[in-house]
Amino acid sequence: MNPKHFGASTQCGEDFSFRVVLGKMSRAGTTLVEIKSGYGLDTDTELKMLRVIEAARLDPKVKVDVSATYCGAHAVPKCVTAQTVSVTEHQISLPSVVQD
Protein backbone atom coordinates (compact mmCIF):
# COMPACT_ATOMS: atom_id res chain seq x y z
CA MET A 1 0.00 0.00 0.00
CA ASN A 2 1.13 3.49 -0.76
CA PRO A 3 0.80 5.69 2.36
CA LYS A 4 0.44 8.78 0.15
CA HIS A 5 -3.09 7.62 -0.73
CA PHE A 6 -4.19 7.80 2.89
CA GLY A 7 -3.05 11.37 3.46
CA ALA A 8 -4.44 12.59 0.16
CA SER A 9 -7.83 11.04 0.89
CA THR A 10 -8.24 12.92 4.13
CA GLN A 11 -6.94 16.24 2.78
CA CYS A 12 -9.00 16.54 -0.41
CA GLY A 13 -12.24 18.46 -0.17
CA GLU A 14 -15.51 17.21 -1.58
CA ASP A 15 -15.08 19.64 -4.47
CA PHE A 16 -12.11 17.57 -5.71
CA SER A 17 -12.13 17.82 -9.49
CA PHE A 18 -12.65 14.24 -10.57
CA ARG A 19 -13.69 15.55 -13.99
CA VAL A 20 -10.04 16.15 -14.95
CA VAL A 21 -8.98 12.59 -14.17
CA LEU A 22 -12.08 10.95 -15.64
CA GLY A 23 -11.85 13.19 -18.71
CA LYS A 24 -8.30 11.97 -19.38
CA MET A 25 -9.45 8.39 -18.93
CA SER A 26 -12.34 8.91 -21.35
CA ARG A 27 -10.04 10.42 -23.99
CA ALA A 28 -7.77 7.38 -23.60
CA GLY A 29 -10.70 5.09 -24.39
CA THR A 30 -11.84 4.06 -20.91
CA THR A 31 -15.58 3.46 -20.75
CA LEU A 32 -16.00 2.14 -17.20
CA VAL A 33 -14.07 2.87 -14.02
CA GLU A 34 -14.45 1.32 -10.58
CA ILE A 35 -13.62 3.77 -7.81
CA LYS A 36 -13.01 2.26 -4.39
CA SER A 37 -13.18 3.96 -1.05
CA GLY A 38 -11.16 2.64 1.87
CA TYR A 39 -8.26 5.05 2.10
CA GLY A 40 -9.93 7.36 4.59
CA LEU A 41 -9.28 5.22 7.65
CA ASP A 42 -12.21 6.78 9.51
CA THR A 43 -15.96 6.90 8.99
CA ASP A 44 -16.24 10.59 8.13
CA THR A 45 -13.55 10.41 5.44
CA GLU A 46 -15.04 7.22 3.99
CA LEU A 47 -18.44 8.92 3.72
CA LYS A 48 -16.81 11.96 2.10
CA MET A 49 -15.09 9.72 -0.46
CA LEU A 50 -18.34 7.93 -1.25
CA ARG A 51 -20.14 11.28 -1.76
CA VAL A 52 -17.43 12.40 -4.20
CA ILE A 53 -17.67 9.07 -6.06
CA GLU A 54 -21.47 9.38 -6.22
CA ALA A 55 -21.17 12.94 -7.56
CA ALA A 56 -18.89 11.63 -10.32
CA ARG A 57 -21.32 8.80 -11.08
CA LEU A 58 -24.25 11.23 -11.45
CA ASP A 59 -22.41 14.06 -13.25
CA PRO A 60 -23.76 14.33 -16.82
CA LYS A 61 -20.45 15.89 -17.97
CA VAL A 62 -18.56 12.72 -17.04
CA LYS A 63 -18.44 10.46 -20.09
CA VAL A 64 -17.15 7.40 -18.22
CA ASP A 65 -19.46 5.01 -16.38
CA VAL A 66 -18.55 5.01 -12.69
CA SER A 67 -18.98 2.05 -10.35
CA ALA A 68 -18.47 2.66 -6.62
CA THR A 69 -17.13 0.03 -4.22
CA TYR A 70 -16.99 0.52 -0.46
CA CYS A 71 -13.74 -0.95 0.88
CA GLY A 72 -13.75 0.22 4.47
CA ALA A 73 -11.50 -1.50 7.00
CA HIS A 74 -9.14 -2.92 4.41
CA ALA A 75 -6.29 -1.08 6.12
CA VAL A 76 -5.57 -0.62 9.81
CA PRO A 77 -4.20 2.74 10.99
CA LYS A 78 -0.89 2.50 12.88
CA CYS A 79 -2.31 3.55 16.24
CA VAL A 80 -5.37 1.24 16.21
CA THR A 81 -5.76 -2.52 16.63
CA ALA A 82 -7.46 -4.71 14.05
CA GLN A 83 -10.04 -5.61 16.72
CA THR A 84 -10.96 -1.94 17.19
CA VAL A 85 -11.24 -1.40 13.44
CA SER A 86 -13.50 -4.45 13.15
CA VAL A 87 -15.82 -3.26 15.91
CA THR A 88 -15.91 0.29 14.51
CA GLU A 89 -16.62 -1.02 11.02
CA HIS A 90 -19.55 -3.17 12.12
CA GLN A 91 -21.07 -0.80 14.66
CA ILE A 92 -20.44 2.62 13.14
CA SER A 93 -19.09 2.68 9.58
CA LEU A 94 -21.32 0.16 7.81
CA PRO A 95 -24.56 1.53 9.32
CA SER A 96 -23.43 5.05 8.37
CA VAL A 97 -22.72 4.04 4.78
CA VAL A 98 -26.14 2.41 4.46
CA GLN A 99 -27.84 5.48 5.96
CA ASP A 100 -25.92 8.02 3.88
Please give a handful of descriptors for the protein shown.
single chain, 100 residues, mainly alpha, two-stranded parallel sheet, 4 helices, 10% strand, elongated
Question: How would you characterize this protein structure?
Answer:
The protein is mainly alpha-helical and 100 residues long. The protein has one domain. The protein is 53% helix and 10% strand. The chain is built from four helices and two strands. The protein has helices at residues 3-11, 18-27, 43-58, 82-99, and strands at 32-36, 65-69. It has a two-stranded parallel ribbon. Strand 1 (32-36), helix 3 (43-58) and strand 2 form a beta-alpha-beta unit. Helix 3 (43-58) runs parallel beside helix 4. The longest helix has 18 residues, at 82-99. The mean pLDDT is 81.
SSE topology sketch:
Elements: H1 3-11, H2 18-27, E1 32-36, H3 43-58, E2 65-69, H4 82-99
Q: Assess the beta-strand content as a share of residues.
A: 5-15%
For this structure, the quaternary state is: single chain
Which whole number gives the mean pLDDT?
Answer: 81
The helix/strand order is HHEHEH
Indicate the radius of gyration in whole angstroms.
14 Å
N→C terminal distance: 27 Å
| Domain tally | 1
The main β sheet shows up as: 2 strands, parallel
What strand line-up does the widest sheet have?
A: 1-2
Which residue ranges are poorly predicted, with pLDDT under 50 across at least 5 consecutive positions? none
Cα shape:
elongated
Helical fraction: 40-55%
**SS field, number of helical segments:** 4
What structural class results from the helix and strand content? Answer: mainly alpha
> What is the number of beta strands?
2
